From TrEMBL:
This is Diguanylate cyclase/phosphodiesterase (GGDEF & EAL domains) with PAS/PAC sensor(S). SUPFAM superfamilies: EAL domain-like (SSF141868), GAF domain-like (SSF55781), Nucleotide cyclase (SSF55073), PYP-like sensor domain (PAS domain) (SSF55785). Residues 53-123, 180-256, 595-661, 716-761 form the PAS domain. Residues 127-179, 255-306, 386-438, 667-719, 788-841 form the PAC domain.
Length: 1277
């Protein structure tokens, strides 16, 4: 038996396996085969290297303990080595006749059966395939099997040869090892840190734990990239970290360091890296360590440091220092003492060089306060804590007030061991307190003039100056001042008025304290009063009310320079503030008195009624208007219960409940009251609790207003509202100013505004801003004149959405003819308006791409032409037609075609200028209007941009599609002066671009019109050619090279034009494709060819086959298979004698649809031929997957097989490939004996071409059949 294998190494292995099998067969007596048969097999191995390998492999296999076996095509063992007993417990003769699947569980048998079948179909070896078999004693044995499928000379499958070995122990060890490895890995990965390893010297990660994803967010695989670690490190750490690591590693030191990295989401993460250096042969070979996320720890450290800084800053601002005194060794007189920086600053020792000690601090203390402080220390030691205010003296002799606090810590024997505390500079507070104590004695309560005098005298005493005064501004401009009290040299002088300009007081106007310690008269030479009085220093402050109003000035002046202390300004500021507050209280009292007088007048004259009750509801006070409201005298109601007046007795209790719920007040409480005459009056009450000084309620007081008319109107409104509430139209009622008083539920539903949120607001809240001011002016003009307004408003809902409202606004007048209300009814007509707008848009735009359509394009073109004529400008019209779009649309479906058109529209739109227009004229035709261009070059650039943008492949439904286009260009005014002519000429130029190979652009020229007319004439004639029976079939014989006889005919269509004669297929077939006529013409060709084949069969040429070409559009058309099946049935024609020719490009354009169609044709019995093979995809993969019978070698390869080595090689390869796939080959275009001889040598079975016959009409072909069908055709050549 000869065996064929795909690969030489497998061939050698198979031969060795076969030899061993022969050995075992002969030993067991299963076959009788001698050295002669084995010699025949060996003779098939030609090379010496194969023979050498044979001996080596045979020796290896005979020495192995593995099980060697052979199976037939049915999967049953036909031979087995003795090792099967050691593996599975069976003797070799017991295994014969069994299949490997008999020794497996069901699920395992199914899996291995599929694997064996796959290897057989693919003609591939299977190596190291693992499976589980059952030992004879019932336990499982894990096997590792390798083998090859075996085929005979005819390529038929004969069985398998293989080797199996027991890997049970190894697999169990692997499982144990994986379990242990997994255990350690899980243990490692449970650590709350990132374990890692870095290779040396590459410095690249070779392992990173999964915790890296949790800590930094990057997948583990990213860490293995080069420089990953450094790329994501903080720039400030990127310089020192590598240097530190390299230095530590070179010294072979374990090291730890902190640095920052950016996480995947951009966070800054602090990392603490603990690194171990792994050393071998005295060199570092590996770094291993853990990365810890210490961000939280770092944040706490930074927060603590910041807190410390803030504490020190707070102490500085608060002038608060702290100290600590160790008393454990030295007692009061000794021991270490610590002062903070602020402590030193408070004591005036800015340099902080003085050593802190008890004696040094005692030196700071004012001599008059030292004994007091010493006593405080003694008291603290006995009491545990103490506080004291005292003075310290600075180096410049200035005194400061200190607030001193301390606390004592004791040991177990109650001995003081530590005293600590704070000191605070409270000088400002102390000076102010002392000043206020001084001036408070001089604030009388009798008379404002005496008050001013007392204040001025106290200023002079506090500041020890001869001059002091208080002045108030004379006018609002604050340019003049009038003194209220003046102290001069120990007595009061008369008041006076003076101009502020040029005086120190003018600077006080700007709300600032003015302090001139010396040379005041020299600094203000225009103020002669300063010179006359001998003033050397001046100190003034503004008096400003709480509300910020400037009231006047207080000032003191001295004849000598003034000594300025830190408390000089604050004390005068307090004086000014106290006086301003006093003056403001006086003014407030005066206003209050006037206001009370005014309120009393209002109280007695107001129409609303004031009332007050006590906590039991007894009326205690009423205004005079109650007589008009209820008809009672005031005295008749005082002392009666308010509840008795209510028509509903519990209504008073409701009022109290609402007061409690409303935090002691209520607004708009409506109730009905009984008048003295028995009638009812409806009132609205605003009430509140009135309280005593402690805030405890003493009763209720409020205002009552008569709302009887409003109540009646409201009742009427409620009746109206019940009807309005039910209507589907929106209703709004406003007052005469447009303020909303009512809206119905339909309004709420449409606008989103709830009634309570819009009542009292102007109706203009609905305005959208989409309508002009003139529109609204006309609206108000109409309704204010008393007329009804009707129109459509574009309003805005609460959520911002626009809506159209069909509005009617009607004015409502009172008995005097005055407009008191407007009633607006509206209906939401948004959907209707949008529909109308959409209809208007669609009338001028393409529905698919939303580009302008032909109508709008022509309108814009006409407008542009008028402008171009007026200003002598140029215009270009580009007519764009997509190449091969019909094929794509028919092959991939209309949905894909629509997506392509939409994408093309988008790309065109991105390339044009804002003033240009791109339109879709229909189908795959687009046009572009370029206005205001300078020359043809502008149109050329635009065309090139468009072609470039379309050249980018289009991705649709996981398919890559290539778009090209042909563009024709016409120019105004050279190629036409009206819109129709320009578009027509651009169309003509476009066809010229298609004739020149597509994917280019052409400008219109006058000679194109003639060619376009000829093409149009041919297209029109072509549309009538089928019904006029102008198409005819010619037939070209296909010859069997071995028999030299006609074996078949190819049907070829021709067009007999009544005027042009016989038209070449190259001239009219492309037109059939473009116009879509190829499908009906194709079915006519198929049916005519079938009818003719039936005639020839009936004439006795029963073995004749017919080849019929099918176009791509026809092949992918709906019900194609069903239609041609019906044709052969109707004509009683045998499908087995018909071969359908399809180009490989047609199959590959839509493989998803092509495969089912081919399978259906094959099932019917048709033969399938691939036409023009070698010019398209030429893929082996689709040849294996598609049901194909014949390959037709394209004549472009056959033509030069004797001259061109490449064509010869391609043709030879196609023939060999077809034979390997059991396909027959037909070579087209054979015209010479040399070509025929070349094909014979390559064992090509069939040919056709002019060497045998040109395509013939039916009558001539019939004669050819009669002459050569049953005889040798070669004899007649």
């Amino acid at each position: 038996m000869r065996y064929f294998f795909l690969y030489s190494e497998l061939y050698q292995q198979k031969y060795i396996l076969e030899s061993v099998i022969l050995k075992y067969r002969s030993q067991s007596g299963q076959v009788k085969q001698g050295p002669v048969e084995q010699g025949k097999v060996k003779q098939e191995i030609q090379s010496a290297s194969v023979q050498s390998n044979e001996a080596r492999f045979r020796a290896l296999l005979e020495a192995t303990h593995d099980w060697v076996w052979e199976m037939d095509a049915d999967g049953m063992y036909t031979c087995s080595s003795p090792e099967v007993y050691d593996l599975l417990g069976y003797h070799p003769e017991e295994i014969i006749g069994k299949t490997p699947f008999d020794l497996m569980a069901n699920d395992e048998a199914g899996r291995m059966s599929a694997e064996y079948s796959r290897c057989m179909l693919a003609q591939q070896a299977f190596t190291a395939t693992e499976n589980t078999s059952l030992h004879r004693q019932g336990h499982e044995v894990m096997l590792e099997t390798s083998g090859v499928p075996v085929f005979n000379d005819q390529g038929m499958f004969c069985g398998y040869l293989g080797i199996s070995r027991d890997i049970t122990d190894r697999k169990l060890a692997d499982v144990a090892l994986k379990s242990k490895d997994n255990h350690y890995r899980l243990l490692l990965e449970s650590v709350q840190a990132i374990p890692w390893e870095v290779d040396m010297p590459s410095w690249r990660f070779i392992y990173v734990g999964p915790q890296a994803v949790k800590v930094l967010g990057y997948p583990q695989k990213d860490w293995y990239e080069e420089d990953f670690w450094l790329r994501h490190m903080h720039p400030d750490d990127r310089n020192w970290v590598p240097e530190f690591c390299i230095e530590s590693t070179e010294k072979m030191l374990h090291h730890e360091f902190d640095y920052r990295m950016y996480s995947k989401d951009g966070r800054l993460v602090w990392i603490r890296d603990s690194v171990n250096v792994i050393i071998a042969d005295g060199e570092p070979i590996l770094l291993r360590g853990f990365m810890f996320d210490v961000t939280a720890q770092k944040c706490k450290e930074e927060a603590f440091e910041l807190s410390q800084q803030r504490l020190l800053e707070a102490q500085r601002i608060a002038r608060l220092g702290h100290w600590d005194w160790d008393m454990s060794s030295g007692g009061i007189d000794g021991g270490e003492m610590y002062w903070s920086d602020e402590h030193y600053r408070i004591c005036g020792d800015v340099s902080a060089v003085t050593k802190a000690s008890y004696k040094k601090f005692l030196d700071y203390i004012h001599p008059d306060d030292r004994d007091k402080w010493k006593q405080a220390v003694r008291d603290a030691l006995s009491k545990g804590s103490y506080s004291l205010d005292f003075r310290i003296v600075l180096k410049n002799s200035d005194a400061r007030y200190i607030h001193w606090q301390c606390q004592v810590q004791y040991d177990d024997a109650s001995r003081p061991v530590r005293m600590f505390g704070t000191i605070q500079d409270v000088s400002e507070r102390k000076y102010l307190e002392n000043a206020l104590k001084g001036i408070s004695r001089f604030f009388p309560s009798d008379g404002i003039s005496e008050y001013y005098r007392t204040c001025v005298e106290s200023f002079a005493h506090v500041y020890n100056t001869p001059y002091a005064f208080i002045g108030l501004y004379s006018d609002d401009s604050k340019s003049r001042i009038t003194t209220q009290a003046v102290w001069a040299n120990g007595c009061f002088v008369d008041n006076f008025e003076y101009e502020l300009a040029g005086t120190p007081c003018s600077d006080v106007i700007d709300m600032k304290i003015e302090l001139i310690a010396e040379h005041a008269a020299r600094l203000y030479p225009l103020d002669t009063m300063l010179t006359d009085m001998g003033v050397e220093s001046y100190f003034g402050a503004p008096m400003i009310s709480v509300s910020g109003k400037k009231l006047g000035i207080i000032a003191v002046m001295d004849k000598k320079p003034m000594k300025v202390t830190p408390w000089t300004e604050p004390i005068l500021g307090v004086f000014a503030q106290r006086i301003a507050s006093y003056l403001e209280n006086i003014h407030a009292s005066e206003k209050l008195e006037a206001s009370e007088k005014e309120l009393r007048n209002i109280f007695h004259n107001m129409q609303d009624t004031f009332y007050r009750t006590d906590n039991e509801g007894t009326i205690t006070r009423l205004s005079e208007s109650v007589e008009q409201l209820l008809g009672y005298e005031i005295d008749e109601l005082i002392g009666t219960s308010a509840s008795d007046l209510h028509i509903v007795p519990d209504r008073q209790r409701d009022l109290i409940e609402q007061l409690n719920e409303g935090n002691g007040s209520v607004q708009g409480f409506d109730a009905g009251l009984k008048r003295k005459d028995g009638s009812v009056v409806w009132v609205s009450t605003n009430a509140q609790y009135y309280r005593d000084a402690s805030g405890k309620p003493q009763g209720i007081e409020g205002l009552v207003r008569n709302i009887s008319q409003h109540h009646e109107a409201e009742l009427k409104m409620q009746k109206m509202s019940s009807a309005l509430e039910q209507t589907a139209d929106m209703v709004m009622i406003t007052d005469h100013r447009g303020m909303v008083e009512y809206v119905n539920p339909a309004f709420e539903k449409t606008t989103g505004y709830l009634r309570k949120s819009i009542l009292g607001k102007p109706s203009r809240v609905l305005k959208s801003g989409k309508q002009s001011a003139d529109f609204y002016n006309n609206l108000w003009r109409t309704i204010l004149s008393g007329n009804v307004f009707r129109d459509v408003l574009v309003n805005r809902k609460k959520n911002g959405d626009l809506y159209y409202e069909e509005k009617i606004i009607t004015p409502i007048k009172n008995s005097k003819g005055e407009i008191i209300n407007f009633v607006a009814t509206g209906r939401d007509i948004t959907e209707r308006m949008q529909h109308e707008e959409r209809l208007s848009f669609m009338a001028h735009h393409d529905a698919l791409t939303e580009l302008p359509n032909r109508t709008l394009f022509m309108d814009r073109l006409k407008q542009s032409l008028a402008h171009a004529r007026r200003y002598e400008k140029k215009i270009a019209v580009l007519f764009i037609d997509l190449d091969r779009f019909k094929n794509i649309n028919d092959t991939l479906g209309h949905d894909t075609g629509d997506q392509m058109l939409t994408e093309v529209a988008a790309r065109l739109g991105k390339n044009i200028r804002q003033e240009d227009t791109v339109a879709r004229l229909g189908g795959d035709e687009f046009s572009v209007l370029l206005t205001n261009i300078e020359a043809e070059q502008d149109a050329s650039l635009m065309a090139e941009k468009i072609l470039l943008s379309l050249s980018v492949p289009l991705q649709l439904d996981q398919q890559e599609l290539f778009i090209t286009a042909s563009i024709g260009i016409s120019m105004f005014p050279s190629d036409g002066v009206d819109a129709g002519t320009l578009l027509k000429n651009a169309d003509i130029a476009m066809y010229k671009a298609k004739d020149l190979g597509k994917d280019n652009y052409q400008f219109y020229s006058t000679d194109m019109s003639a060619r376009a007319f000829q093409r149009l004439t041919m297209e029109n004639s072509l549309r009538r050619a089928l019904e006029r029976e102008e198409f005819v079939l010619f037939y070209q014989p296909q010859v069997n090279i071995k028999t030299d006889r006609i074996s078949g005919a190819e049907a070829l269509v021709r067009w007999k034009h009544p005027e042009l004669g016989l038209v070449s297929p190259s001239d009219f077939v492309p037109l059939l494709e473009e116009t879509g006529l190829i499908a009906p013409v194709g079915y006519w060709i198929f049916e005519s060819a079938c009818k003719q084949l039936k005639i020839w069969h009936d004439m006795g040429f029963s073995g004749l086959e017919m080849s019929i070409n099918i176009s791509g559009r026809q092949f992918h058309s709906k019900n194609f298979v069903e239609k041609i099946e019906n044709i052969i049935k109707e004509n009683n024609c045998s499908s087995e004698m018909i071969e359908i020719e399809i180009t490989e490009s047609v199959l590959m354009e839509n493989q998803h649809n092509s495969m089912p169609a081919l399978e259906a044709l094959d099932d019917i019995g048709f033969k399938i031929a691939i036409d023009d093979f070698g010019t398209g995809y030429s893929s082996l993969s689709y040849l294996r997957h598609f049901r194909i019978d014949t390959l037709k070698v394209d004549q472009s390869f056959v033509r030069d097989v004797n001259e061109d080595p490449d064509d010869a090689a391609i043709t030879s390869a196609i023939i060999a490939m077809a034979h390997s796939l059991n396909l027959r080959v037909i070579a087209e275009g054979v015209e010479t004996y040399q070509q025929l001889e070349f094909l014979k040598q390559r064992q090509c079975e069939y040919v056709q071409g002019y060497l045998f016959s040109r395509p013939l009409p039916v009558d001539e072909f019939t004669k050819l059949l009669k002459k050569y069908f049953f005889s040798n055709l070669g004899a007649g050549l």
